[in-house]
Amino acid sequence: MALKVELKPGEKILIGDCVLTNGDQRARFLLEGSVPILREKDIMTKDRADTPARRLYLIIQLMYVSHDPREHHDIYFSLIRDITQAAPSAWPLIENINNQILTGDLYKALKHAKKLIEYEQELLQHATRGQGLRNGGAADRKSA
């Protein structure tokens, strides 16, 4: 069964290890076969991988498009260790990611990694709010 893809003008898509950029008009095409595909909104770049969860997403993305995902396992497990030490409460999300990788569904692992990124953002927001309270609410007064 073919996958129908529609791209907006200028939108990029990763197909295998190639990046395609659409021209100035909408385009629709069918892909047949099995190859890793990521839309521009789902592609993590090295520049954007500026937090532990985003770096984990990037490594899973590299595993997804790699001919040998095992090449990235050492970095993956190192990041998992760092994240669980810093935020043990993230373990259920990491366990979901691990399960998808073990079953070979790296695309679903990416989807679960997005949830980890969202959770990481929540933790950072809590930490930032807590920091403002520890400073006598100075951060809160500045924003008011």
Report on the structure:
The chain has helices spanning 52-65, 73-86, 91-102, 106-134, 138-143, and strands spanning 3-7, 12-15, 18-21, 27-31, 37-39. Helix 1 runs antiparallel to helix 4 (106-134) and helix 3 (91-102) runs antiparallel to helix 4. The chain has a 3-stranded antiparallel sheet, with no helix packed on it. With 144 residues, the protein is an alpha+beta fold. It has 5 helices and 5 strands. Strand 2 and strand 3 form a beta hairpin. The model is unreliable at 138-144 (pLDDT under 50). The protein folds into 2 domains: 1-42, no CATH class; 44-144, no CATH class.
Intertermini distance: 56 Å
Mean pLDDT: 89
Strand arrangement, major sheet:
3-2-5
User: Which structural class do you get from the secondary structure elements?
Assistant: alpha+beta
Describe the sheet with the most strands. Answer: 3 strands, antiparallel
Poorly predicted regions = 138-144
Shape: globular
The Cα radius of gyration reads 19 Å
Q: Count the beta strands.
A: 5
What portion of the residues fall into strands of 2 or more residues? 5-15%
The residue fraction in helices comes out at 40-55%
User: SSE order in H/E notation?
Assistant: EEEEEHHHHH
What does this entry show, briefly?
The protein has helices at residues 52-65, 73-86, 91-102, 106-134, 138-143; strands spanning 3-7, 12-15, 18-21, 27-31, 37-39.
Question: Characteristics of this structure?
Answer:
144 residues; alpha+beta; 2 domains; three-stranded antiparallel beta sheet; 5 helices; 5 strands; 52% helix; 15% strand
